[in-house]
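Progress report, Aim 2. The chain analyzed during this reporting quarter is listed below.
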Amino acid sequence: MPPLDRKLLRDLWRMRGQALAIALMAACGIASFVTMRSGYEALLASQQAYYEHNRFADVFASLKRAPASLLQQLESIPGVNQLVGRVVIDASLDVPGLDEPASARLVSLPGAPGTGLNRVHLRRGRMPENMARNEVLASEAFSAANRLSPGDSVTAVINGRKEILQITGIAISPEYLNEMKGSSFPDNRRFGVLWMDHDALAGATDMRDGFNDVALTLAPGASEQQVIERLDRMLQPYGGFGAYGRKDQVSHSFLANELASARVSSTVIPAVFLAIVAFLTNNILMRVTVLQRAQIALLKSFGYADREVAWHYVKLALLIVLAGTVAGIALGSWMGQGLAGLYARFYHFPRLEFSLSGFSIGVSALGGAASAIAGAWLALRRILRMRPAEAMRPEAPAHFRPGPLERLGFQRYMSVPLRMVLRRLERKPLKALVSILGLSMAAALVVTGQYTFDALNEIIRVQFRTAQRDDLMLSFNESRDASVTHALSALPGVNRVEPFRAAAVRLRFAHHAKKTLIFALGGKRELRRILDEEERPIDMPAEGMVLTSKLAEILGVRKGEALSVEFLEGQRRVAEVPVVRIVDEPIGVFAYMDMAALSRQAEEPLLVSGAYLAVDPARQAELYRTLKGIPAVASVSLREATLQSFLSTIAENMRINTRVLVAFACVIAFGVVYNAARIALSENAVELASLRILGFSQAEVGGMLLGEQALLVAAALPLGCLLGYQLAALLSILLSQELFRIPLVVSTRTYLLSAAAVLLSAVVSGALVWRRIRRLDMIEVLKTRE
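Predicted structure tokens for the chain:
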């Protein structure tokens, strides 16, 4: 073995504690990258394979009803590759074991299994028989939530008639990776998808020789926008609700947002870790090269070139960091498998498996090597410029001048140990600042991870407690006359009714367009309120509309400007409506209007699409039984059930990420404090030993060394809280989605938790350094080297 390599191994053994701390931090950074990146890659690969194999459509459109003969004309639109017409309706369900009403989307199956678009994948059981009026496939998530199996049955109200539907099989489809109704969160207990033979469903809904839903794929190179415009024109006479592309399809959009979030997370957090690894590597090598100044001079005088000496120390850094990289890849692989399992619970693919890609391994190795080389190079530049004769001489003593404490006269009010600690910090401010920055990043990571729960609690408080105060919301299968409100008031247990109108529209401003819903609300609103910045209910303007801030951002519109509103039902009128106000809501992208104002703009009578109800808890069961038998009710949404769905969808992923971040942040704090204390011990060993000989106790000497680290920790905590807030602000912007946005809210509890995590890590690392202080060999330390 070459002499330099033997020296390298001896150096590694002597500094094994510090090397282990750096390797652990490198492992945390690499593990976070491998976990998030592998989860992203597994999700993306499963999506692409599933979409391709099961022929997921590119464009979708719904309408009232059109004759089957129109399909040939639609298929002849330039750019259309394949087109299918289907029957799709929503129906209320009575599910065994479920007190409240549920709802389902019934989708027709093609005559020949395995053909058409958005093909189902059978998990268990068998396909429904042709023309079997009462046989259906049930979606996997809905079946699992309600413990339904092939052979079980549910009762549905289809076209005003009760039908007992027998489940023949359990299936999934790329169209419903997340079984969501509209833009709400998945509620698998109360909403599912049922697939029925096309002829049977068409017969049950009076749509023989007709269809009310279209899905198509695009030919290579075709313009999606041109196909959508042509499709809309041809479907308009048949009550078309506006075609839209895959990016606006609810299930795909939810998955696309998750992929975007994973891509952001796999970049920002690992970069923070590797930057700290480079900083610690620089600190250690800076100290090692100073201590080995004479050895470096001897190596040069014996003929070793600068590049050989430099490569020797770079190898030292590479071995430490790459050992952490290997451990990080292994840890990330294990965590990535858990993340893939978590994804498999939320997204229903035929197959979703973790795989460690060459890209993840390559980027991990390059990232670790880059951080090691960057830290080493900054430490080596000064020592390698020295000539051997100059380096053989001891380093010139530092020239110290009176610091601020002496100049201001504060030193006479301080004890000698405290004065010595402060002087060391004064005389090496850059080193102290770098240590403070490293510790502050540990605190910042805890703040960043924990703030998501603060944001979650804020969303629950504002959206589900202050803005939404209803017990349940029901929707009709079609718009009804406003007089239906009186009938709802007479239902058992109903204390208050507030109707609403949900109008499907396409909003346009300049070259921006967005298909969404306008929720028109009545004059007296207690159950569904729109809040301003100070959480005060606002009144709906007599004319004009209110937009959510995310929708205004998508359209590029500001308060006072007018939007073009294309109504996608009724007379399909196009109106110019001014934006009167913009409000901030964390969920969805909607517009709001007064019911009478919407009626005037659409030139339609006063209609309602559903209502918010306040219900007597003692009579809830009676009300649920009544609603199950009302054909006009298409769906019932419970506020508390929606909240639980929201929590199960979002909070579990947040909880896991937060725990991992807090653990990794503790590793950072431990590594920074331990390395800083060990370096301070090696730098001041002679002084500390001298103080022991002069009569200072072991506790006093240890207090001087660890007191310096305590001051650094105290200074780092406020900066860490500030950096954490800024990092949280960055993530809230990067992770902003149409469906869900994270508000920037950081609680005092989060700041206290981050401080506690850093302090605990500092105490543990300080205890390890204290053991070394107790074993300090004063005679060995005080030997003078010639």
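The CA atoms of residues 644 and 733 lie 25 Å apart. Residues 59-252 form one domain. These observations will guide the mutagenesis work planned for the next reporting period.
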